[in-house]
Automatic annotation (TrEMBL):
<dbReference type="InterPro" id="IPR004014">
    <property type="entry name" value="ATPase_P-typ_cation-transptr_N"/>
</dbReference>
<keyword id="KW-0460">Magnesium</keyword>
<keyword id="KW-1278">Translocase</keyword>
<dbReference type="InterPro" id="IPR023299">
    <property type="entry name" value="ATPase_P-typ_cyto_dom_N"/>
</dbReference>
<dbReference type="Pfam" id="PF00690">
    <property type="entry name" value="Cation_ATPase_N"/>
</dbReference>
<feature type="transmembrane region" description="Helical">
    <location>
        <begin position="842"/>
        <end position="861"/>
    </location>
</feature>
<dbReference type="GO" id="GO:0012505">
    <property type="term" value="C:endomembrane system"/>
</dbReference>
<keyword id="KW-1133">Transmembrane helix</keyword>
<dbReference type="GO" id="GO:0016887">
    <property type="term" value="F:ATP hydrolysis activity"/>
</dbReference>
<dbReference type="InterPro" id="IPR036412">
    <property type="entry name" value="HAD-like_sf"/>
</dbReference>
<feature type="domain" description="Cation-transporting P-type ATPase N-terminal">
    <location>
        <begin position="9"/>
        <end position="82"/>
    </location>
</feature>
<dbReference type="InterPro" id="IPR023214">
    <property type="entry name" value="HAD_sf"/>
</dbReference>
<dbReference type="InterPro" id="IPR023298">
    <property type="entry name" value="ATPase_P-typ_TM_dom_sf"/>
</dbReference>
<feature type="transmembrane region" description="Helical">
    <location>
        <begin position="703"/>
        <end position="722"/>
    </location>
</feature>
<dbReference type="InterPro" id="IPR008250">
    <property type="entry name" value="ATPase_P-typ_transduc_dom_A_sf"/>
</dbReference>
<protein>
    <submittedName>
        <fullName>Plasma-membrane calcium-translocating P-type ATPase</fullName>
    </submittedName>
</protein>
<feature type="transmembrane region" description="Helical">
    <location>
        <begin position="812"/>
        <end position="830"/>
    </location>
</feature>
Amino acid sequence: MPLPTPLAMPHSLPAEACLAALQAGPEGLSHDEADRRRAQHGPNRLPEIRARGPVLRFVLQFHNVLIYVLLASAVVTGALQHWVDTGVILAVVLANAVIGFLQEGRAETAMSAIRKMLAPRAAVLRGGARVTVDGADLVPGDIVLLEAGDKVPADLRILEARGLAAQEAILTGESVPVEKAPGPVGADAALGDRRSMLWSGTLLTQGTARGLVVATGSRTEIGRIGGLLASVDSLTTPLVAQMDRFARWLSFLILLSSGLLLAYGHFVDRRDFSEMFMAVIGIAVAAIPEGLPAVMTITLAIGVQAMARRHAIVRRLPAIEAIGSVSVICTDKTGTLTRNEMVVAAAETPAGSFAISGAGYAPEGAVTPAGDLSRLARAAALCNDAGLICRDGVWTVEGDPMEGALLAFAGKVIPDPRATARRLDAIPFDSRHRFMAVLTESAEGRMVHVKGAPERVLRMCAGLDIQHWHQRAEAMAAQGLRVLALAERVKAGKWIDPAHLEDGLRFLGLIGLIDPPRPEAIAAVAECRAAGIRVKMITGDHAGTARAIAARIGLENPDRVLTGADLDRLDDAQLALEVATVDVFARTSPEHKLRLVTALQANGLSVAMTGDGVNDAPALKRADAGIAMGLKGSEAAKEAAVLVLADDNFASIAAAVREGRTVYDNLKKVISFELPTSAGEALTVVLALLAGLALPITAVQILWVNLITGVTLGIALAFEPTEAGTMARPPRPRSAPILSAALVWHVVLVAALFLAAVFGIFTYAIGQGHPLALAQTMAMNMMVVLEIFHLFFIRSLHSTSLTWAAARGTRVVWAVVAAMTAAQLAVTYLPPLQAILGTRPVPLTDGLLILAIGVAFFVIVEIEKQIRLGLKGAS
Ligand code: ATP
């Protein structure tokens, strides 16, 4: 049978005609048919943005002011026929480019792998059942089910819509959501006016819809205009950008001072120009921290991967820094702090209280004492969008877990009433009105069933002691149960009129669901508290339930609860006062989240906020770190967030904070290592020149040291694991500058010690009667030894380096140290290399002396750190 071709003008045809033209039915395609169509139409994917080719990426490694300076130096040394120097400088540049190239490739692979983890999924009808599939698997003829917050996965002809509106800015530029409905529109309507269509890539801002896929992949409107997938994030964060600016400013300063030094040496000191020039180039090259940008990018890439391993997917790189500095985490309750694996445990009806047994979603269990819960069960099953699936004896939910639990409960009481009832209309659940209503037709006629938050549903019921039932609901909530009220009424007509729902419902009973806290969330909350981070719960659930769960989870102040209504009564100033101490917010709507973020930020706090619904997007954008739920979160929430939790688990937030702090520490370590090293190397030569002394290290030797240490040692720091006390420290202030007074002091101290050690060993060697070349060789080795010890010192920035773990190091550290030792031994002892670098073999005793000075250097900086940490601890 030939496959249908895509429809030309679906917006102007009646929905039935579109179904017929695509040979589709309202129950969806069969699995086989979907496979057949996919083979013909291809996957529902837009062509990938072509990544930059490897050649261009390699060339771009040279596009950096620091590298320009090095290349210019190479040209000048070449012109002066100092070929060795030219060679070494070019080797520095090339090594840097190769490492930058490889690591950037790695970073981009990491980012694109992560983007794939965020690929959207879609709920479709296949063979009459609702299933969730990859967005890429959709084919023309599929029936897609959508709700507010979803991203439209293909071009759809709307078959059914309720309160539907979509934001189509990416296609039409119009940022105000457009209302949508199934009725056909004129054939010549402009794209933005085709109300009967939903376009791929746009967002549903409200309502629910059922739509027929009419075009997929590059045949969609967005595909036709060459729309692209999520644009590529640049590999930068505020800190890296800050360092980039600093590096540029630094190179300018280095060039200026080098020029001045050259002029001084030649005109005032009357030194030979060519010799002077080579020395100055050595200084400039040594002083420039050319490895810094590459190493910082690598550090970030490693951080992104580490977070992904802990189920926290970075959508925007700055999230890494932001999440590491948060001082408050505002989190949802259901599914994040709790498991979201619900079980109905209790029911209260006018006939009495009942306990319901059974585990998981299996519809097997008993009601005690025996009683007639069939009306309650019928309402629970009919007012329900979920499905239960049994595979190999294991029952799972398709849809909302709470509704799944209600189905399981109903199954324990009666056979599935949905088999014999036809749904005519529904008011979907919305966290603002907190109830759901369904109109069905069956043998008993037309009935409306309502379920929702007790205070909402009780208000709609007639002839009831509302006070009494509120108390019953409170009592259930106080046990940590999630409470729902159910009601029903006979109804004529085919539509539910919300205005007439309000009165005359017949109350059926309350249902209490258990949703146990996640054990790992309890541990993670404790970890956050130790790390000086306050955890606040913001939930749509009942105040009593929220309080009970907050206490079990271990929040600091579980007893005071503010409800959404309380929040509405407070003005911004009062709210800012209250949020400091209140940790539980219940019966909130998404709008309250935005107010809470703003109030917390007004207190100078750095806020992480979780969210899943479309209405959470503004709060997620406003937060310092917006976190969306990967499993139950809407596309709208994911797009507003910087971080997505693959498992919706609070423990993953704590893990992300730990990784975020680690990355920031490692960036700081890289900087704290590179800057004093560069300064120490450069100052050695500068000082000798200014003092009119012989150079303790020749220009070419400085270049060599720079070549082998510049990038290699720094990279080891990018792989540093989390330091032991990382989650026992208070969060770093949001505005803390990276180039802090402490860092400047560290640069001064280490540079001074470098100078003392290098000049010391040089003077000692000359004093021993060693030839100049040997003295210089010893000075050069001294410098490399100092750098290695400095590396070990820097690895523990916040604690002592004198622990077994610190001494054991990492594989990368030892690999780098081994490589450098081998290289140093080679240039010191192998005659051909000696000829190039002008070195001499260093006698064993002198070699040991150099090592001893390295140890002494380590002891001095370590004592200084202990004093500093001691002072900090005391204050
Ligand atoms: P959070 O995820 O923010 O911790 P929540 O999931 O409990 O909180 P909402 O989903 O806004 O918050 O639910 C608020 C209340 O609305 C629930 O306590 C329940 O009483 C009611 N409710 C939730 N889901 C449904 C539903 N599908 N049908 C009817 N009522 C519902």
